[in-house]
Write a structure and sequence with these properties.
This protein is α+β, with helices and mostly antiparallel strands and about 150 residues long. It contains three helices and six strands. The strands form two sheets. It has a four-stranded mixed beta sheet with strand order 1-2-6-5, with helices on one face. A two-stranded antiparallel ribbon has the order 3-4. Strand 3 and strand 4 form a beta hairpin. The N and C termini lie far apart (about 45 Å).
Length: about 150
């Protein structure tokens, strides 16, 4: 009764004819590579596409603040746009101006810099990109999105 949920056997699917894939799997403990209902998987999102897409359709991520930089390749003159999201400001990093507070954009050199290559159809304002940027900024990292 109710919704028919397809039965898909849990586990990792890979080509056993690939030496590289077989080597990775042999060194990867099964307990950390199986996404099951017991480890948090939802029974109604049965594949990776659904588990990736549905959360971003349901839960919107607030817009992130970027500094756009235009970079010219000296070899061929091609111009790239980069959206850079610096870590969230601490209260002591805020400058008080006449009309409003402006955050300082400071990269913490002790933290990693992440480069997002979103693919053909994405950008800085895609939900999955905003989610990644928000999480990494909250950890103090700088995130660069290639536009």
């Amino acid at each position: 009764p109710g919704i028919d949920i397809p039965t898909i056997e849990e586990g990792l699917y890979f080509s056993s004819s690939s030496d590289l894939a077989s080597s990775i799997v042999s060194h990867w403990p099964e307990s950390s590579r199986t996404y099951t209902v017991g480890s948090g998987a939802t029974p109604y999102l049965v594949n990776g596409d659904q588990r990736t897409g549905i959360p971003f359709l349901i839960h919107k991520i607030e817009e992130q603040e970027y500094v756009r930089a235009w970079v010219t390749n000296p070899y061929d003159g091609e111009v790239l746009a980069l959206d850079i999201a610096f870590p969230y400001s601490r209260p002591e990093d805020v400058e008080v101006g006449e009309s409003k507070e402006k955050p300082k954009y400071v990269h913490d050199s002790d933290k990693p810099v992440y480069l997002i290559l979103h693919g053909l159809n994405g950008g800085s304002h895609e939900e999955y990109v905003k989610d990644f940027v928000k999480r990494r900024r909250s950890e103090g990292s700088t995130v660069v999105v290639l536009i």
